[in-house]
Write a structure and sequence with these properties.
Chain lengths: 440, 196
């Protein structure tokens, strides 16, 4: 029985989105080539050039075909091959091809090897030497000298079973507590209840500062953890997009980047790309400190958050002519931080910048900052180690510093941290590639 | 000796036959530990992930679709746990974990396996030396490539199965697996050149 009639694991499932398509002209040319039984000389003149090209692409395929293979087999393999070629071509155009690739012959051999579940004996003679070479190469993976002894095995099995048992005990104890409490049997008198209430009040008063600090700390840790997961999503995105940071549009200079909800303009739409393309969920992109982002529901095809207050993070402004990418040699440059208080004030029309103002996500105590190396760091001021302000482009920072120098004595005497300066207008961009400027 | 299939054992476990979990743990001990050792590069980490993976099997047993195969499910859980643990313990930069393999000039390097010189990992060589070299080469691969290579190879999974297990597009699986083999071959050759 022909193998072609079986579902081929290498073909995308029916209904799933193919990773690449032939363009309409190539599609028509392909059809013409099939109609002409793969003879490029016999196709209509308008398709001839493309058919010659397709024929050249399919050249290596002929070498791996078994002479007894049927026309259906040829057709099926041709389609697989063409899809592969088109996918590679599309990947090349996107620029996300890793820079070490198998040569086309090895590529074909590996494909056959995977489809034969790494058994070389079913592979055609022409492709077998290459398949055997790949198999020999991968054989090394089989043989790690992890010394496995009976005692070691017993110990690990015992560890696993103990952990599972502990989990079971924990789960059942939860159930018992739940079941036991409502049916205590003994009735409490009013005096008992009031004593307990008094104890609670005293205890709460004593514990409140500690509990409050613990809550803040827990929130900060939860924020760091969530931001870390966004870091993983950015890393994954970069891996699939030639090390580029997430982008939604061309992000041309001059656009008003705080126009959240207008994906062709806003900077937040660039970050939202992680959700739109499935690298991160809406929950991951919601800081625990941003109440407006919690429980937000948006359609799967949304391109941006509905308004600026729903945006939890400030992302490196992508409206500069030169943008950083993940393979930048600079160690751990900053990609993301909690929401910028400066952009938020400017967007609301407040023409002031408070020196060292922290993100509103954590009530001004500080902000989590994500670096390109995946590290999340808690900063108590919005300044980097080099003195770069997270929320401002270098040009405005210089203006502020000048104003600070000028009015230093006066401001210090008044204890006033409000800086008169040029407010953000929503069109600024990082001055240089090294300028950290995070905004929604 | 237990004759039931993995899927039947898990079904029985769900039905309250607690002893079947031990059968499953013992049955998959060697393969899974080797896989995890290759993936994490550390025996201790591999054993921790092994334990976590079976704990997850216990917790998620009720959601397992017994019409599907147990082993790919187990290995996928283990790969996910290993990824989480590696990220948690990461001392290396995230970029190292996730970055694609790059040539120094930014050019695509086409690897022709027939032209690769030196012994293949399956050829005679001091076992300890070969193993250390293979592990070194595997560890140098980005985590996502390592994961796909090991899942596909250890589990003999098809592209579609890997795509489903890791929840990524089939085209991505294919391009990553092929790149992983190319990178593995290139690094293996380089590791042997250094010694010559």
């Amino acid at each position: 029985m022909s193998r072609v009639s079986e579902p081929d694991p290498n073909q995308p499932d029916e209904g799933s989105e193919p990773s690449a398509h032939l363009c309409p002209k190539s599609d028509a040319a392909m059809q013409a080539l099939v109609d002409a039984r793969f003879d490029p000389a016999a196709v209509p003149p308008e398709h001839k050039a493309r058919c010659m090209h397709i024929d050249a692409l399919l050249g290596p395929l002929n070498e791996c075909l078994h002479p007894k293979e049927s026309a259906e087999t040829l057709w099926a393999k041709t389609i697989i091959r063409l899809r592969g070629q088109a996918a590679n071509q599309a990947a090349n155009q996107r620029g996300d091809v890793p820079l070490a690739q198998l040569c086309p012959d090895d590529d074909g051999a590996l494909e056959l090897l995977v489809s034969e579940h790494f058994e070389t004996r079913h592979i055609t003679q022409a492709m077998r030497p290459r398949a055997e070479r790949i198999s020999a190469l991968l054989k090394g993976l089989d043989q790690p000298s992890v010394p496995i002894t009976d005692a070691g095995r017993d110990e690990l099995v015992s560890r696993v079973l103990t952990a599972v048992q502990a989990q079971r005990t924990l789960a059942s104890s939860r159930v018992h507590i739940h079941e036991a409490s409502p049916r205590g049997g003994r009735h409490l008198r009013f005096i008992d209840l009031s004593s307990i209430a008094a104890l609670f009040v005293v205890g709460a008063a004593l514990l409140w500062p500690t509990v409050s600090a613990m809550r803040q700390r827990a929130m900060q840790v939860a924020g760091a953890s969530r931001m870390g997961s966004v870091g993983s999503a950015v890393g994954q995105y970069a891996l699939d997009h030639n090390a580029a940071l997430p982008m939604a549009s061309a992000s041309l200079a001059g656009r008003t980047w705080w126009n959240v909800g207008k994906p062709e303009e806003s900077n937040s739409a660039n970050l939202f790309t992680l959700r739109r393309t499935g690298y991160a969920s809406l929950e991951q992109l919601a800081s625990p400190g941003n109440a407006k982002a919690q429980g937000l529901a948006l359609p799967p095809d949304a391109w941006d958050w509905p308004d600026l207050e729903c945006v939890s993070y400030s992302y490196q402004n992508q409206f500069a002519t030169q943008r950083r990418c993940m393979n930048d040699r600079a160690v751990g440059f900053i990609i993301l931080a909690d929401k910028s208080p400066v952009a938020l004030r400017a967007w609301r029309g407040e023409l002031v910048v408070y020196a060292d103002e922290n993100s509103p996500n954590f009530a001004g105590r500080g902000q989590n900052v994500l670096h390109s190396d995946g590290q999340v760091v808690w900063l108590q001021t919005p300044s980097t180690a080099s003195g770069d302000d997270l929320w401002l482009p270098a040009s405005i920072e210089r203006g502020i510093k000048a104003a600070q120098r000028k009015g230093q004595g006066q401001s210090q005497a008044q204890g006033n941290h409000e800086m008169p300066c040029q407010a953000l207008r929503g069109v600024e961009q990082p001055e240089t590639i090294n300028d950290t400027f995070l905004c929604p | 000796m237990e004759q039931r299939t993995d899927e039947q054992l898990l079904e029985a476990y769900r039905g309250g036959e607690a002893s079947t979990l031990e059968v499953l743990v013992r049955r998959h001990h060697d393969d899974l530990l080797r896989f995890l050792y290759r993936l994490t590069g550390s025996r201790t980490l591999a054993e921790d992930v092994f334990q976590e993976a079976f704990l997850q099997v216990h917790l998620s047993a009720s959601t397992f679709d017994t019409s599907r195969r147990f082993k790919p499910w187990l290995f996928t859980i283990a790969a996910n746990k290993a990824r989480d643990m590696l990220r948690k313990n990461a001392r290396r930069r995230a970029l190292d974990l996730d970055a694609p393999v790059r040539g120094s000039e930014g050019e695509v390097t086409f690897v022709d396996l027939m032209a690769i010189e030196g012994p293949s990992p399956s050829q005679a060589m001091d076992v300890t030396e070969r193993d250390a070299k293979v592990q070194q080469v595997v560890s140098e691969l980005p985590l996502l490539m390592r994961e796909i290579l090991l899942l596909a190879y250890f589990q003999k999974m098809s592209y579609a199965q890997v795509a489903e297990a890791l929840d990524i597009p089939l085209g991505t699986v294919k391009s990553r697996l092929h790149s992983a083999v190319a990178a593995f071959a290139k690094k293996w050759e380089a590791a042997n050149e250094v010694d010559v």
